[in-house]
Design a protein that fits this description.
The complex is a heterodimer of chains A (about 220) and B (about 210).
Chain A (H helix, E strand, L loop, with lengths): L13 H45 L5 E8 L2 E3 L13 E6 L5 E11 L4 E9 L4 E9 L9 H4 L1 H5 L4 E2 L3 E3 L10 E3 L5 H35 L1
Parallel strand pairs in A: 8-9
Antiparallel strand pairs in A: 1-2, 1-3, 3-4, 4-5, 5-6, 6-7
Chain B lengths: L16 H6 L4 H25 L8 H23 L1 H7 L10 H9 L6 H31 L1 E2 L2 E2 L14 H27 L18
Helix pairs in contact in B: 2-3, 2-6, 3-4, 3-5
The chains are: A alpha+beta (about 220), B mainly alpha (about 210).
């Protein structure tokens, strides 16, 4: 028993299929690289501007700032030779007009309700206080989770508050140190903000203390 | 040019619904996504039409995806460099233009079989239709969900925003309302032409009952 006669089709040789896709891939790569070369400096410039503005905001407009790099488990103000400053973990030390340190701007990130929340906060190692907080990246639910950046009362909670932070229901605080009123309907997002700050302070406080000790020893040596 | 309204990709053909439902929570986002998709459709239709005789049929879909992905990557970088706030708001949905079935559909059904001029005209029509549908949805959702258009308040300070309209369910409600409105309008137009009352989808309605 034989089936119906099907039309015979001429298959394209494999080498031509591979060659066509390879050529198309190479052309696509060339186009993308050309646009990348044009766009990348502009993207980096924008990111640097956003970061500069955020540092000014969380450290209450310092006169000038210095970047500290985390190298081999210690903070240093000297960028190692050949290292890419953007690839290293950084904190930013702010100074007032008299060249006295006013605080450190620290970046942190953790998964929130929808996606990763990335923020920057000012921290005073001397008093152990958070000086201010600003959200850098967030895709939290509009109208609910995005209150972590749009609710001015919640953002103001981080202006001069002792660490470690402790989230409490709005109005249910008992006057303990570090209490932050959470946001109704955005508990996970608000809790993530508090967790980011607590974790980063816990990780950075000993490193900042060690750095301050090294700077003091260096100054005495001079 | 029928893609603008009579064969609108979103409202008639139901193509490209993922971005239409996901990023139309504000007019600015809808406009940016519509323009980005328009650019990708135009650029990729041009290349598909130019290269159609060199692309073997066995690998045509792979080649179309490669061409679309190239333009999407270019749009992604251009938005990040030129309008970073909108790029941030659109998030992962820019990359998802690659798998927008509306674009692949136009390449497979039209651009790969027609000369460059007609392929470009088709891309302009369908892209404009997509952009119009996105802006319609974005306007409806932003007005009800935020009381504003393009961030400018239109319903006053006393308006209590319907938050659900800017959340994902609001996209489905909006699309449903717009389709209902279009169906009603189409039914009315056919009734006025033929004199026969019709329900949606052309079904003749029964004559009105006589009340004794």
């Amino acid at each position: 028993m034989s089936g119906p006669d099907l039309p015979v089709t001429q298959d394209t040789p494999s080498i031509r299929l591979i060659g066509t896709l390879a050529a198309a891939g190479a052309l696509a790569g060339l186009l993308i690289v050309m646009v990348h070369v044009w766009a990348q400096p502009r993207i980096q410039e924008h990111q640097a501007r956003v970061l500069r503005e955020a540092i000014q905001e969380v450290l209450a407009s310092p006169a000038h700032t210095t970047a500290l790099y985390l190298v081999d488990g210690a903070l240093t103000d000297q960028l190692p030779a050949g290292a890419d400053s953007l690839a290293l973990e950084r904190v930013f030390l702010g100074f007032d007009d008299s060249n006295r340190p006013v605080g450190v701007a620290i970046i942190g990130a953790k998964p929130g309700f929808q996606d990763v929340i990335r923020l920057i906060f000012g921290y005073d190692p001397a008093s152990g206080q958070v000086l201010g907080m600003k959200i850098l990246e967030s895709k939290e639910t509009p109208g609910l989770g995005d209150k972590i950046e749009k609710d001015s009362a919640f953002v103001a909670e981080f202006d001069g508050i002792d660490t470690p932070l402790l989230g409490v229901k709005p109005g249910a605080g008992r006057g303990r140190i570090g209490e932050v009123d959470m946001i109704t309907g955005a508990t996970i997002s608000a809790r993530t903000v508090i967790a980011i700050i607590n974790d980063r302070v816990e990780a950075m406080a000993p490193l900042l203390e060690a750095y301050a000790g090294r700077v003091a020893a260096r100054d005495r040596g001079n | 040019m029928r893609g603008i309204w009579r064969e609108n990709p979103v409202l008639i053909q139901m193509l490209g619904l993922c971005p239409a439902l996901a990023v139309t929570n504000t007019v600015a986002n809808a406009l940016a996504m519509g323009i980005a998709t328009f650019f990708v459709l135009l650029g990729s239709s041009f290349l598909v039409s130019v290269l159609k005789s060199w692309i073997p049929k066995e690998i045509r879909i792979s080649a179309y995806i490669l061409i679309i992905a190239t333009f999407v990557t270019i749009v992604d970088m251009l938005l990040a460099a030129m309008v970073p706030d909108i790029h941030k708001a659109l998030g992962a949905f820019i990359a998802l233009i690659v798998v927008n079935c509306m674009i692949l559909h136009r390449h497979e059904a039209f651009a790969s079989k027609r000369p460059v001029g007609r392929a470009l005209l088709d891309a302009v029509g369908v892209g404009a239709g997509f952009l119009i549908a996105m802006v319609m949805m974005g306007t409806f959702r932003e007005i009800l969900g935020n009381g504003s258009i393009l961030g400018v308040s239109v319903l006053g300070p006393d308006f209590e925003p319907w938050i659900i309209m800017i959340l994902p369910p609001g996209g489905f409600f909006t699309l449903g309302f717009i389709l209902l409105g279009m169906s009603w309008w189409k039914g009315r137009r056919e009734t006025s032409k033929s004199g026969v009352r019709r329900w949606p989808h052309g079904v003749a309605a029964p004559p009105p009952r006589r009340v004794a």
